[in-house]
Design a protein that fits this description.
- This protein is mainly β.
- 4% of the residues lie in helices and 55% in strands.
- It has four helices and 38 strands.
- It has a 22-stranded antiparallel barrel. A five-stranded mixed β-sheet has the order 1-8-9-5-6.
- The longest helix has 15 residues.
Amino acid sequence: MFSKKTHLAVAVAAACSFNQASADEQQSMELQAISVVGSGEMSDTDSYKAKRSSAATKLDLTPRQTPQAVSTITEAQLRDFQLTSVNDALKAAPGVQVQEVETDRTYYTARGFDITNFQYDGISVPFVYGNVEGDLDTAMYERVEVIRGANGLISGTGNPSATVNFVRKRPTVTPQARVDLTAGSWDKRRIDTDVSGALNDAGTVRGRLVYANENKNSYLDRYSREKNVFHGVLDFDLDDSTVFTLGHTLQTSDANSPMWGALPLNYTDGSKTHYSRSTSTSADWAYWDVKENRTFAELAHSFANDWQAKVVLTRVEKKGDGSLFYMAGTPNRETGLGLTSYPSEYKDENKQLIVDLQASGPFSLAGRQHEAALGASWSRSELSDISYYDSTTGSALPPLDDWNGDIGRPLNDQPTRGSDFTDRMKSVYGAARWSLTDDLSLITGTRVVDVKSDGNNYGADKSSKNSGKVVPYAGVVYDLTDEYSVYASYTEIFDPQTKTDITGSRLAPVEGVNYEVGVKGELFDDRVNVALAVFRTEQDNFAEQAGTDAGRAYYRAVEGLTSEGYELEFSGEPVQGLQLSAGYTFVDITNADGSHGVTYSPKHMVKTAATYRVPGLEKLKVGGAMRWQDDIRNGIAEQDAYAVVDLMASYDIDRNWSVSANLNNVTNEKYLTSLYWTQAYYGAPRNVSATLTWKY
């Protein structure tokens, strides 16, 4: 039963969010019982334990039933440690490295290799250049799932790093609302709002609206950024078994004085450079604005035989507009001279259309119950961009220690260059989970892929075609006891690349195989997941950076690359009130000649996060997080092993109000964010934020 006050709250939220008429009922009403397909629920629990997911195999499985390493950054962990950006969230994910090569351009790696597969609610999206521009927010996501290892079954291509699946917040039947106000170091100001509920008395129409705004300066000289996020979703129950969902997400990331490229890492004599953490190569007039609109329509139906079918149409439009400044060259150790200017303006537009059809459900064979998933996908990605060049390029600059960003704006008086190309992919797949015995299950699957590209990239022909490529997958899981299982999986790798050589031509697809074996457990009455994974990957045509030309990195193909390692992971509530997520990763990558490869990727990584409800003071929650990696290098520079430690505390004032505080990089560790490129910059020093929360 809902009171008048509840009806009013839902009506106000609906009017503000979706321009619906406010409810005028004056009496309490009881919602009818309905069957909802794909309806989300807000969760205020503290849990760090992963939920069921279909992101790894297209089958709805628990982590223990999935024959690959799976990690989840839950909504609770996102909130506890203020992981409001995708970069922050993935920094907390076991086995993942966030390669922040610039302030507003990021690559992601796992097991030493590039992550080029992002999914939204299990639907893969194309990566045009293998990176992300701007600062993606997490306000619209319920959780972030990371499936490590090759992923050809679910993404259309195989990649031995990982797949990142962003699970969107969906409408709820029960009316709920939340507002977070945050203030922090460097004039950080942020507001998060999230309202959800039924929009009619029957509960057959539901809506959810998320809005976030963040505005802050930086520890970096001259740098500031504003983000805006809008996320709206409507669910319509067409009947008891069919739901139509329509959603739209808008993200903007507007940066002032961003870094294009970063700091030089060595002097002309080969020694390592040392700069203040605040040092930036950017000009005072520079900017980089990124805007993304993502719309999806989904029709889901549940059949009487427990099968479900779903068709999803996604349209993405991303635009970038920047006036940027790059510093080229290597400085002299004594004078600091030797750097030269490279100003440029850059505009790009990427339009994507994705269609995905899938069906899954149980079937009987030989007296046993099994599960199957079938599907097809089609995508088209059209990109056009243009770079403006300047006659002042190559002008001598003062020493970086004296740089204040004061330099003339680009004249744009030289010929322009750019790209105009289209990537297309279509695939069909099938997967089945065979229940061979009560304790033994076999997962088999395959995807057949066609990939085609047309157009040009900065004068180079980008035309390529790969047809009928078959990417098989196999995995087996055996339950040793009620708590432990062992598993093994095999996947072939076929990954058309986005990286280009010095001529601008794309490298040939990466091909290879991925093996993984492991042990998984569900302990403490299923409150905790534990896992050990051992893996080996063999690849050809792997992209390795060979240099930088006019602010753009170019690559060469490496043959015979082998990666071996193991991962340990623990997540859940081992004792009442303690939520824990911890992971250790070891990766050893070797070239064909036996030498150490991909040296910018650490061999050892540790990620931990924990919170604790203090006994007798259950309204108080305290916690800490730590990420550690060993030393890395890139041929001209080295980053020693380092650890970053964060602390948090929150207190529930009453059922509606709470306060929290976060202290990041407690030890004020100074470190380079990445050695993925031959330039880098320093991570943020010690900083603090405080949040006031109201929820209903």
